[in-house]
Request: fold
Amino acid sequence: MSKKIIDAIIEMREEDALKTTRELLNSGTPPLEILNACREAMDVIGKRFECGESYIPELILAGEMLNQITDIVKPHLEKDAKAEKLGKVVMGTVEGDIHDIAKDIVVFMLDINGFEVTDLGVDAPPAKFVEAVKKTGAKIVGLSGFLTLAYDPMKETVAALRNAGLDVKIMIGGGQIDEQIREYTQADAYGKDAMAAVNLAKQWIGV
Reply:
């Protein structure tokens, strides 16, 4: 059934994607499994975009579909939400990248798992991350990037945070991010999905 929702998103069949989401939830499919299927679909769309096989309108429509799916899934996840906040996280899509889908899922999952998240949105320059950490006192920073053009801004943002003397742990994720890119950017870790980001954040604060 997860393949059904992946295909619906990739093929831009909005009504089918929403209908399948409801069917999956009603049949007892874990909400996280649905969100992971959405992430897989977005990875495919992102690769097609980088290869010139899909365009901005498709990215926008896919993002709108994901927002609607998240709205449907959210109440099922919030049942387990924690009232007391565990720690603070600054999260944003790095400068030059305007994709917020993966970031939004991570922000959402951090939030329901007990973290207070400051979301800087998309196309956030290094100085904005530095300013937000100073303002909030956050000990964790998440850098999101969907396309390969995000690698250098990630590296620059990590350097800016280090040069500012801020005591933070930095995670990166999204799109084609892997251990090699983590090493290039000098971030502390990379998360392959939203739950990996949550687990990293918990580990870093000692939970």
Summary: Strands lie at 87-93, 115-119, 140-144, 169-173, 189-190. Residues 87-205 form a domain with the Rossmann fold fold (CATH 3.40.50.280).
